[in-house]
């Protein structure tokens, strides 16, 4: 086991692990770390804990030190300067006639590098833009193309539920989301109703998906013949989370709701007695 701390470079960002050395860090502490040959300020998301070596990167770098008040103020100045740089860079992009949308600009803590994050429909030849930006800001320039989900994470916003976007408030990493999840949950397949601000399927489709999958494995499917306390019938509706079956009994027009567990008990008893179910 190895003692580590987990840090984030931005709110709801991916968690990276570093060695704390002999220091005990607290949640939300600001620390200085080194990554990709540059210094960054990060915030502690996971205080000192033990982890298995195989779950960690091969090279575990040490935390440089707990950030001082002066360093925290410097970081705030970097953020303010980055906002001004964003405006300048957008104008430069317009001058170069590039079809790209600049989303975010950040300085490394030591201002040795500026990172410009953008979205675009395809590949962009930004070599001349990089030269221009380097001439203006007098530091190393990195342009990083990101996806629309990353853009939503950085910019934030209000989702269809009326709350702030999950990705910009607490989701550290994006998880795969599929249209099958919406189908399993009985949701409308209208793209406008199951898509987030990014235009992709909403991340929250994943939250209850395991429960729906478990329920589908346990319960009879639509159209299946079952035995109920009131006789045989056919499943015409499912409420997977509540474990409620809507069943149309043989010879009746109106469907009736039954507790799935109650139906399963009757089914087992019917099978034990050698009875066959006919809808």
TrEMBL record:
GO cellular component: cytoplasm
Residue ranges of domain PSP1 C-terminal in the record: 61-146
Pfam families referenced in this protein's UniProt entry, alphabetically: PSP1 (PF04468)
Origin: domain of life: Bacteria
Residues annotated as signal peptide: none
Name by which UniProt lists this protein: Signal peptidase II
